[in-house]
């Protein structure tokens, strides 16, 4: 699922009365965002336990990361509505929409979030949430929801599927160990053609009956099979590692994700850390398969050469990409990635990794003089905290 258009945020405006109320209460909402998120999710999961069991990732809920991400995205959108100097969160919303469609989120689920989010705000801010203030924040939510719903409909339509109908039965036809903590799985089924860099949501049933989901980058494949890399670090990945073998059947979603390699003739720079290498390898595989002759620099950071799970695959692809330069940096050797040492001028830059890595690279790019700046920067985190660096 992919479209070249982005969410339409420019036509969304609050009434003057609502704008003043949101502007006045935005600092309080921002200061209490974690408390609001905790209250909101607690109320929602009490009323709808099936959402925690079958839709939301329980590990992210336990850590609180998903809670902060969703609540903070609403505050970020509100900031844009009341502050002309605030950045447009269009890319943040694009990322959220892709994650929603990969989970099969439907329009009729938005009122559930609205009702419990409003209750969470009222619960934390108390008497400050008058009926008028509640109405103003409700307007913020529905403006944001309208942007997402329309974009998600376009994404579903791009693969010709009914809204939410994204999961397909797949068969595991290969399982391969890449490192102590990373395995690859090949999933065959009636899928859709993935864009280079996209992911699929894999659904497994756990011992307690919960049907948990986790998104994994597609490192190669077509409309009949996705090859994914799985790092063993949560409920879903442990279930795959311990119980899923060749011949077993699972459910996987049609490919989604906004971190997609763009066509063109500009140089390409890929930078990743750890398991963030997976979408990059997917992009390299596409470049090799299409015999693309663009100049490509790939810089990967890892703990050590032993933990670079996709080293062999990367080196194999490098043999067929004559314009590819690969650099590996290992933290155990004290060798860190710095932006200034690389030529990013006029390039399309793609980033994927953890919070610290991604923020450091983004900061380094912002410090570059204009003549050395890239033409574009695209990024994704393997956590729900994308809003932190948007």
Largest beta-sheet characterization: 6 strands, antiparallel, barrel
Broad CATH class of the largest domain: Mainly Alpha
Q: Which stretches of 5+ consecutive residues score pLDDT under 50?
A: 384-390
Q: Could you say how many structural domains there are in total?
A: 3
How do the strands line up in the largest sheet? 1-2-5-4-3-6
Helix-strand category: alpha/beta
Radius of gyration: 21 Å
The secondary-structure element order is: HHHHHHHHEEEEEHEEHEHEEHE
End-to-end Cα distance, whole Å, is 22 Å
Task: Quote the CATH topology of the largest domain.
Answer: Globin-like
What percent of residues adopt helix (DSSP H or I)? 40-55%
Mind explaining what this structure looks like?
- InterPro entries: FAD-bd_FR_type, FNR_nucleotide-bd, Globin, Globin-like_sf, Globin/Proto, Riboflavin_synthase-like_b-brl.
- With 390 residues, the chain is α/β, with parallel strands linked by helices.
- The chain folds into three domains: 16-158, Orthogonal Bundle (Globin-like); 167-253, Beta Barrel (Elongation Factor Tu (Ef-tu), domain 3); 268-389, Nucleotide-binding domain of ferredoxin-NADP reductase (FNR) module (Rossmann fold).
- 41% of the residues lie in helices and 21% in strands.
- The protein has twelve helices and eleven strands.
- The chain has helices at residues 16-31, 33-47, 49-54, 58-63, 65-82, 90-102, 110-125, 131-158, 235-243, 277-289, 311-318, 355-366; strands at 167-177, 182-189, 199-205, 211-222, 225-231, 249-253, 268-273, 296-302, 324-330, 348-353, 376-381.
- Strands 1-2-5-4-3-6 form a six-stranded antiparallel beta barrel.
- A hairpin with a 5-residue loop joins strand 3 and strand 4 (211-222).
- Helix 1 packs antiparallel against helix 5 and helix 10 runs parallel beside helix 11.
- Mean pLDDT is 91; it is low at 384-390.
């Amino acid at each position: 699922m992919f479209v070249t258009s982005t969410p339409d945020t420019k036509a969304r405006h609050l009434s003057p009365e609502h704008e003043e109320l949101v502007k006045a209460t935005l600092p309080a909402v921002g200061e209490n965002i974690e408390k609001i998120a905790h209250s909101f999710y607690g109320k929602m999961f009490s009323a709808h336990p099936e959402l925690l069991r079958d839709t939301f990732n329980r590990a992210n809920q336990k850590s609180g990361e998903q809670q902060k991400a969703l609540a903070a995205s609403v505050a970020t959108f509100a900031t844009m509505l009341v502050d002309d100097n605030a950045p447009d969160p269009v890319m943040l919303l694009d990322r959220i929409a892709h994650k929603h469609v990969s989970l099969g989120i439907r329009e009729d689920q938005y009122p559930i979030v609205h009702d419990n989010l409003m209750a969470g705000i009222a619960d934390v801010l108390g008497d400050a949430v008058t009926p008028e203030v509640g109405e103003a924040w409700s307007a913020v939510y529905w403006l944001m929801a309208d942007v997402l719903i329309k974009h998600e409909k376009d994404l579903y339509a791009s693969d010709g599927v009914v809204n939410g109908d994204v999961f397909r039965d797949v068969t595991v036809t290969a399982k391969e160990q890449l490192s102590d903590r990373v395995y690859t799985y090949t999933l065959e089924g009636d899928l859709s053609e993935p864009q280079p860099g996209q992911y699929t949501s894999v659904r497994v049933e756990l011992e307690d009956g919960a049907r948990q989901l986790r998104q994994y980058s597609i490192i190669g494949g077509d409309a009949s099979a996705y090859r994914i890399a799985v790092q063993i670090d949560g409920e879903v990945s442990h279930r795959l590692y311990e119980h899923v073998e060749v011949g077993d059947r699972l459910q996987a979603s049609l490919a989604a994700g906004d971190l997609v390699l763009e066509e063109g003739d500009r140089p390409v720079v890929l930078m990743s850390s750890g398991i963030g290498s997976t979408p990059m390898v997917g992009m390299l595989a596409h470049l090799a398969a299409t015999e693309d002759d663009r100049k490509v620099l790939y810089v990967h950071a890892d703990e050590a050469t032993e933990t670079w799970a996709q080293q062999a695959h990367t080196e194999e692809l490098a043999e067929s990409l004559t314009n590819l330069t690969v650099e590996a940096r290992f933290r155990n050797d004290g060798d860190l990635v710095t932006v200034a040492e690389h030529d990013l001028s006029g390039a399309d830059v793609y980033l994927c990794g953890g919070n610290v890595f991604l923020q450091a690279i983004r900061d380094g790019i912002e410090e570059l003089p204009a003549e050395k700046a890239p033409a574009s920067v695209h990024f994704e985190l393997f956590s729900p905290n994308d809003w932190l660096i948007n």
